Backbone:
């Protein structure tokens, strides 16, 4: 059996649902990334625009000297049950964040795969694992390797599993035969994600204006959220799944990769008032080792206050009033003041 097939079989045994190979060349849509940065679409994510990150995305050999192949891997996470609508007093956490932190889970599995590749080839290989941890255009390489297409909602989408996927790569000096890039997309004339996006953050070239995206605003953005977006946040506490939930490619519900089998799963719809009242140590304990920590305590409570304002929960009014009177954190206090003004 060719080495590429053996590697795919090992990847599948380790719990990856997709695996493919591309040459470590400049990714085909590198220019689109440069224009994206030039237009400021990265918002406050300065790590997307640092000069060394811009260079590394052009040439993976700057991340791994001698790099010849990018092995793209994908693991699936379970989508939320679309019939399970939250109650008015409940918030929403995006599906990807309900599991143990994918950065570590995928990295560990990819390191094991690299070890097995070295055994298969009977030679030490130089390698670097990237699991949303390095300046590399992950979706572009995945599409080049034939894992799926970049859909209009900007997500890498595969026929078998839709877009509820995490991506990761092994950069290696091993020369492997590249796969066939995915050239077709199932989007055709569909525009559902464009219509469903509450803030119209999806750009015509399948990229996202992070300044408008609720995923960015509730996860990455530090400080006050601009007023125009606050009503559109609805009851989202962390992340946004709207442009994926609406997508016809996602209508088959996958159970997720074996990589996450048996893992503890967070409640996707926590009680909003309880979330708002969490103390810092409770926040850390509840979301320990999950992506939710990325919002930090301040961001999470800011989001919870805005969600309470949008839900106009009578039971939360006094907690919001107490917050406006005595909360030392200006960002949280501002969100609580805004929330009270919505009643
Ligand atoms: C920055 C970032 C964000 C930002 C910006 C989103 C974005 N799409 O750029 C924010 C915080 C908003 C975000 C949100 C989310 N993210 Co994010 N994010 C990233 C990150 C770190 C970089 C993405 C990037 O480089 N953006 C810059 C733009 C220019 O590049 P691009 O998005 O790859 O866009 C390419 C295409 O548009 C293509 N292109 C350009 N023109 C054209 C034209 C055609 C016809 C075609 C086909 C393609 C094409 O070229 C571009 C360059 O490669 C990646 C990890 C990584 N290192 O890649 C994860 C990543 C994209 N995120 C991921 C996830 C899970 C999410 C969320 C679903 C989380 C959530 N539920 O809230 C949302 C989805 C939002 C969305 N609709 O994209 C996954 C996506 C997996 C998948 N199936 O695609 C990734 C790959 C992380 C991972 N390793 O699993 N994210
Ligand atoms: S909703 Fe329609 S246009 Fe948007 S990504 Fe899915 S198939 Fe493509
Ligand atoms: S994640 Fe939400 S806000 Fe961002 S592009 Fe998709 S639907 Fe729009």
Residues:
């Amino acid at each position: 059996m060719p080495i590429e097939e053996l590697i795919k079989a090992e990847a599948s045994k380790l719990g990856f649902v997709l695996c493919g190979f591309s040459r470590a060349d400049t990714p085909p849509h590198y220019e689109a990334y440069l224009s994206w940065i030039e237009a400021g679409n990265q918002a406050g994510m300065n790590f997307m625009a640092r000069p060394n990150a811009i260079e590394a995305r052009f040439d993976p050999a700057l991340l791994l000297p001698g790099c010849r192949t990018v092995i793209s891997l994908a693991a699936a996470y379970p989508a939320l049950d679309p019939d399970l609508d939250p109650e008015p007093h409940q918030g929403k956490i995006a599906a990807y964040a309900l599991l143990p932190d994918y950065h570590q889970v995928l990295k560990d599995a990819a390191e094991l795969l690299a070890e097995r590749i070295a055994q298969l080839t009977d030679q030490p290989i130089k390698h670097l694992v990237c699991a949303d941890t390095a300046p590399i255009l992950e979706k572009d390489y995945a599409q080049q390797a034939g894992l799926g297409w970049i859909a209009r909602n900007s997500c890498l989408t595969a026929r078998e599993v839709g877009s509820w996927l995490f991506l990761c790569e092994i950069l290696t000096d091993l020369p492997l035969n590249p796969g066939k890039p995915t050239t077709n997309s199932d989007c055709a004339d569909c525009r559902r994600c464009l219509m469903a996006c509450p803030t119209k953050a999806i750009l015509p070239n399948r990229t996202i204006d992070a300044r408008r995206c609720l995923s960015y605003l509730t996860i990455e953005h530090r400080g006050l959220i601009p007023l125009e977006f606050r009503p559109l946040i609805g009851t989202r506490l962390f992340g946004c799944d709207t442009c994926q939930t609406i997508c016809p490619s996602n209508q088959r519900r996958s159970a997720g990769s074996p990589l996450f089998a048996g893992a503890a799963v967070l409640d996707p719809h926590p009680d909003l008032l309880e979330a708002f009242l969490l103390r810092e140590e409770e926040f850390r304990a509840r979301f320990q080792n999950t992506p939710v920590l990325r919002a930090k305590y301040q961001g999470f409570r800011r989001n919870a206050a805005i969600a309470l304002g949008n839900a106009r929960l009578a039971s939360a009014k006094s907690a919001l009033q107490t917050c406006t009177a005595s909360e030392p954190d200006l960002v949280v206090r501002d969100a609580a003041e805004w929330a009270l003004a919505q009643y």
